[in-house]
Design brief:
heterodimer, A: 376 residues, mainly alpha, two-stranded antiparallel ribbon, globular, B: 298 residues, ABC transporter involved in vitamin B12 uptake, BtuC, 2 strands, ABC_UrtB_bac (chain B), cell membrane (chain B), ABC_transp_permease (chain B), transmembrane transporter activity (chain B)
Chain lengths: 376, 298
């Protein structure tokens, strides 16, 4: 499989020639990969908890959640060419599914969540809250619900060959509508304030620093697992097909594949990752609200992946972490300067270095490029 | 009954604003396949033009009339600058252009915050626009505000002027040629780069006019463009790329649907319903109401 070659089409894009994987150096690459993941694991599991304060570690947990979304984006956008400006929708679905369960668990059996009593508009739990009393249902829902929603949207949209800018706008509008819907239904969703003030996480008290550290470890482990999974997807026949669809959808269609199905899988998987990220974000940060999932945060998810390297797994994840970190540390001190810097860097990278900062390494060492190029 | 009528009128005036914005977007999208996310900030620039002009001229009426051409020029100049600096370098990468222009919009918003401050400001509406026409008096009165009629008139004037330009002038002929087949147009001796720039000037200028119109019905603020631009994009998606008549129909249809749904349900449910309606509509006509027939696949 590794000596399988893909030639990108010149049909609708810039048409750079790309080869994925070749025999020589595959063994070295595998060792480098194993070494890279081992180093990342040591950093995340041993070094970071040892040197960072509890406060900083919680911030890192938040950045890692964004990195999870970025991994999904690099699959759907970097490899699949689908510019998803609405990952906030899936992040929010996962986040709210988890938050609803935590709220119900805090309230205890048969009781209403505190905010519903506060707004006093309802004395009965809405029917769609009821299933989230069960932890099993909630854990399944955090990725199954976003994936199901993505499957329905993707099926309708890709089947009718809605793509490119049309798809981008539509996905963005969906995220915006979801945020507006949540704000509008304050009595059952918490409105603008969102859901917050969680006491426990599956029986563990969240005010205990040890338990909050455990949440961090869960997040770090999930991120590494998702990255390995996505890497396998990239290297599989499916990954090759996805890149082929991105570069020349018509050619793939003429070869007898169904491009709509290929795109749908990537879109659904990326939605599942965003949902999982949203769900883990809730215990780590302690809030989920419409402000975290609307238009602006949805594009923010993309910025890290774009700056780091959209088609590169490591690039996208590191980019997301770096941008989130810089946002937190720099925007506190220089809010205006940070906005100019972030936007400027984003413009320059997207316009003149579409492979992201990670592609600089390849430019410098003249290694073979990762498959990136034509955007539809 | 009168309630439905008055909601429809509100819808039509929402549609008129959307139309003004969508006209410019449609022009640049059709011309270069470029989604300009900074279009919303050109609207903002037009609106702040009114604010600045009013600071120097006391009379609200005169300042509005001066602002109209001035906002067109300011927004148009910003558009040309953007096209010249960035967009023409990203030819054939439409999705990257979308992202780059979003970065530009982020910068322009911050610029507005630095110059005018983060809080919203208000422009004075002229006295001759503050009245309203009462059509049906009594229990269910139906009134049409002058300002909304003015916006409707502005939108109609813009559509007529743009149609005449595209149909009757040599510039319009060149623009249409580039839209239909860029390579062939270039081979026929049309300076496509210059046509692109002029198109961008007109399209962005129309955003400036929309900004002036928006000052009559709402506050002026750094994020005013972002809030309305998505709806304008949806108008383009429904109307079809580069199709003026599609944009006209779609703008009024979406405006009226939104307003009527808002009356019968809530604002948030109305928005979701409109969006579901759009996805359903795309199942039927994925390329929008009107499409440019080409021989390309799909």
């Amino acid at each position: 499989m590794t000596d399988h070659q893909t030639e990108t089409g010149t049909g609708n894009g810039t048409g750079d020639e790309t080869t994925t994987g070749n025999g020589s150096g595959a063994r070295g690459a595998r060792w480098r990969l194993a070494g890279g993941y081992a180093a990342a694991a040591v950093l995340l599991f041993a070094v970071a908890p040892a040197v960072l304060s509890d406060f900083r570690l919680e911030q890192l947990a938040r950045y890692l959640c964004f990195a999870m979304v970025a991994v999904g984006i690099s699959l759907a956008w970097g490899r699949g060419g689908m510019l998803t400006l609405g990952q906030g929708l899936f992040f929010g679905l996962g986040g709210y599914a988890m938050a609803m369960h935590l709220k119900l668990a805090d309230a205890g059996p048969g009781q209403l969540p505190d905010f519903m009593l506060l707004y006093g508009s309802t004395d009965q739990l809405p029917w769609w809250w009821e299933p989230f009393r069960s932890p099993v249902v909630a854990i399944a829902a955090v990725f199954l619900v976003p994936m199901a929603v993505a499957a329905v949207i993707g099926f309708l949209v890709f089947r009718r060959r809605v793509r490119g800018a049309y798809f981008a706008i539509l996905s963005q509008a969906l995220a915006a509508a979801f945020a507006i819907l949540l704000i509008g239904q304050q009595a059952t969703t918490g409105g603008t304030n969102g859901l917050t003030n969680f006491q426990g996480f599956f029986g563990f008290a969240l005010n205990d620093p040890i338990n909050r550290r455990t949440v961090y470890f869960v997040i770090a482990g999930t991120l590494l697992a998702l990255m390995l999974l996505t890497r396998q997807l990239f290297l599989s026949r499916y990954g090759e097909l996805l890149v082929a669809v991105r570069d020349s959808e018509e050619r793939v269609r003429f070869l007898g594949y169904d491009p709509a199905l290929v795109k749908l899988v990537a879109y659904v998987v990326s939605a599942g990752m965003a949902g999982l990220a949203g769900a883990l974000f809730v215990p780590a940060v302690g809030i989920i609200s419409p402000a975290l999932i609307g238009i602006v945060p949805s594009i923010q998810f993309l910025i890290g992946a774009a700056i780091g390297g959209r088609a590169s797994l490591v690039g996208a994840a590191l980019g997301a972490i770096a941008v989130a970190w810089a946002q937190t540390t720099l925007s506190e001190e220089f809010p205006a300067a940070w906005t100019y810097f972030q936007a400027g860097l984003f413009i320059v990278v997207v316009a003149f270095l579409p492979g992201g900062l990670i592609s600089l390494r390849q430019l410098l060492t003249r290694r073979r490029p990762t498959p990136l190029g034509a955007s539809t | 009954m009168t309630v439905i009528l008055s909601q429809s009128f509100t819808g039509i005036s929402i549609g008129a604003v959307l139309l003004l914005i969508a006209l410019g977007l449609s022009l640049t999208f059709g011309q270069m396949g470029v989604i300009n996310m900074a279009h919303g900030e050109f609207i903002m620039a037009g609106a702040y033009t009114v604010y600045v002009v009013q600071k120097s001229i006391d009379s609200a009426g005169t300042s509005l009339l001066i602002s109209l051409p001035l906002a067109f020029l300011v927004a148009g100049a910003m558009g040309v600058l953007l096209e010249w600096l960035l967009i023409r370098r990203l030819y054939a990468r439409p999705l990257d252009t979308l992202l780059v222009t979003w970065g530009v919009s982020l910068m322009l918003q911050q610029l507005a915050r630095d110059i005018f401050g983060a809080p919203n400001v208000n422009a004075q509406a002229p006295s001759w626009l503050s009245g309203r026409i009462t059509l049906v008096d009594g229990e269910h009165s139906l009134t049409l505000a002058h300002s909304r009629l003015f916006i409707l008139g502005l939108a109609i004037a813009a559509v007529v002027a743009l149609t005449l330009t595209l149909r009757r002038t040599s510039l319009g002929r060149r623009i249409r040629a580039v839209v239909q087949h860029r390579d062939l147009a270039e081979a026929s001796g049309i300076a496509t780069g210059r046509v692109d720039r002029i198109t961008f000037f007109i399209g962005s200028g129309l955003a400036g006019l929309a900004g002036v119109a928006l000052t009559l019905v709402g506050p002026i603020g750094p994020t005013m463009g972002t809030n309305i631009i998505i709806d304008a994009f949806l108008v383009i998606v429904v109307g079809g790329i580069g199709q003026l008549r599609g944009a006209v129909i779609a703008a009024f249809a979406l405006g009226v649907l939104q307003a009527v749904m808002e009356y019968s349900t809530t604002v948030s449910v109305a928005r979701v319903t409109v969006l579901v309606a759009i996805v359903a509509f795309l199942q039927w006509r994925p390329q929008g109401i009107y499409t440019l027939r080409t021989r390309s696949l799909a």
